[in-house]
């Protein structure tokens, strides 16, 4: 398998690389003791321009479980690129740490880091992509379906960075992925185009629709907040438009949905009901746990690839 140098977006990976990361995540989850010293002596900087629960905790504890040391930096040191240039920021950090994990507002920030850093860069969220989340999602789906290439996954709600990563990763894996969004909230057109091209090569299929009837026959439905982090749009302005897209038991029963995912934070009673979130078809908290295992697979593959064999 071709080695991975950075993880900014799943579209930069091959099917073999994604499958390799998922296989390694499965091994780490099953036998964590085998990897408890894999990052011994290694330090990982985690940069956060945005607040976080799952991303911060899973990276911090995950690095610790691999025997490494996580260093958390937030904006108390000044906005990235303002107090000092990203070039200098990246060059300095590269002298001290073994990888940089960054949760940022703009994908351009990550591209700048990749240009100037001499250590691996991991995108833990930006405006366009959320690759670590998607890897955890695919790992969770794979725990319930033997062949990912035969799974039909439908994202319902606002087309965003999570939608983009699911479409791109699913296309590479040969899955059928649908983005079912209200008019005016569809995923980025350029990302859809790229996902369609990847789907053609890998035997997948991409569907974009505003009709809930497109859900018919899908295995997994996926939800997210209706207003993404950093979007100042008042919820009341979009509530009426998004309410028909709420994931509830009636939707699951009508369309024969087997499992439910949500990347959280979830707004119970809005994009998803508590009945569904806490119900037997929900694999949402398995999905949250798998963030740590999938991210640890990424860290090992970038920093100590021989440890992940």
Short descriptors:
single chain, 309 residues, alpha/beta, Rossmann fold, 2 domains, five-stranded parallel sheet, four-stranded parallel sheet, globular
Rounded to an integer in angstroms, the radius of gyration calculated over CA atoms is: 19 Å
- Count of discrete alpha- or pi-helical segments spanning 4 or more residues: 11
Summarize the helix and strand pattern as letters: HEHEHEHEHEHEHEEHHEHH
Mean pLDDT: 95
Describe the oligomeric state of these chains in a short phrase.
Answer: single chain
State the shape. globular
Named at the architecture level, the CATH assignment of the largest domain is 3-Layer(aba) Sandwich
Number of domains: 2
In CATH terms, the superfamily of the largest domain is Aspartate/ornithine carbamoyltransferase
- Structural class assignment: alpha/beta
N- to C-terminal distance: 11 Å
Q: What is the helix fraction of residues, given as a range?
A: 40-55%
- How many strands in all? 9
